[in-house]
Amino acid sequence: MKFEDQRRIMVRDNLEARGISDPKILEVFLKVPREEFVPDDFKMHSYADHPLSIGEGQTISQPYIVSLMLSLLDLKPEHRVLEIGTGSGYQTALLSELVSEVFTVERIDPLLRRARRILTALGYENINFRVGDGTRGWEKAYPAASEFDRIVVSAAAPGVPQALLDQLADGGKLVIPSGSRYVQELILVTRQNDEYKQEKWGGCAFVPLVGEEGWQD
């Protein structure tokens, strides 16, 4: 079966059937070729609804959970988004299709270089890349940016890093898996002035967020 057909089945059976209804979200999942971000050994499983290894102890996340996180963010075309955990670059591509500018941080240099190569080859031009501690966000990075309309964290933290809350714009939203190293809750944080409202959106399992305000190696 062609990848294009697998993509349509994934969107129908694993996104729409589970309540993802935003047409913009569904459209980008139909457009972005997930197989380009999956290592050769796993390409035949590109559209299975589960995580896949991308090396370095990291994974490309389950399509449904990515679609849920993006839906919770309520993304707008004018938004600037901070992504913590570039990983394969697949979610980065989805974000790039949906918003004005993406700032993405990855602590593992070989993963970032591979993701950047793929994204560049696919023609994405509104993405800024950084190798560093994702728990510190875009701190002291180039191009300079001190706050973001939306922040999405693709690794599990013991709590919400204060540095990320500080970089969330007033009225902004942040989505992060938070809990233990092995089981977490998906948390949506909304900022209003200096108040941060948290909502829980169900259990999930992500690789640990390693860094100053996360887990230690």
Give the DSSP E fraction (strand runs of 2 or more residues): 25-35%
Q: Class by helix and strand content?
A: alpha/beta
* CA(first)-CA(last) distance: 41 Å
> Any idea what the radius of gyration is?
16 Å
Mean of residue pLDDT values: 96
Number of strands: 9
Query: What is the string of SSEs from the N terminus onward?
Result: HHEEHEHEHEEHEEE
What would you call the shape?
Answer: globular
What's the number of helices? 6
Which percent range fits the helix content?
Answer: 25-40%
Main β-sheet description: 7 strands, mixed
Uncertain residue segments: none
Give a written overview of the molecule.
By secondary structure, the chain is α/β, with parallel strands linked by helices. It is 28% helix and 28% strand. A hairpin with a 2-residue loop joins strand 1 and strand 2. The relative contact order is 0.13. The model has no long low-confidence stretch (mean pLDDT 96).
